[in-house]
Amino acid sequence: MDSKVLDEIMKLKKDEQAAVATIISTRGSTPHKSGSQVLFYRDGHTVGTIGGGCGEAEAKRLALMMMESGISTVVEVNLTHDVAEADGMVCGGVMEVFIEPLKL
User: How many CB atoms lie within 10 A of CB 57?
Assistant: First the structure.
């Protein structure tokens, strides 16, 4: 686990909602590789990164939903040419991201 993310998780207060997103696999060119993590807080701030841009924004959107449901999930973040080009990205790969809601 990313030490910055772990340090932040250890600081979570009772009933504070957050979710950690971890890249579990990648195919092609991605901004970060397996093991990269970001912690999303309900208020919108983050610690760590899985690459920024549209891919991280999608993970954040889903993490906020997972905070409500309490259900962990694996999502595919597609950064391939057709999808990425429309958003100005240059990566061209696919990341599988495990999103786990946290609540003390």
Answer: 12
Please provide the size of the chain in residues. Answer: 104
For residues 46 and 20, give the distance between their C-alpha atoms in angstroms, rounded to a whole number: 10
Place of tokens 């997972």: 66
* Separation of alpha carbons 3 and 73, rounded Å: 22
State the Cα–Cα distance between residues 66 and 73, nearest whole angstrom. 8
pTM above 0.85, yes or no: yes
Under a CB-based contact definition with an 8 Å cutoff, are residues 50 and 33 in contact?
no
The four Cα atoms 24, 48, 15, 103 give a dihedral, to 10 degrees, of 10
The DSSP result for 31-64, as a single string, is SS-TT-EEEEETTS-EEE-S--HHHHHHHHHHHH
Give per-residue pLDDT as tens, 18-32: 999 999 999 988 889
Residue with tokens 């786990």: 100
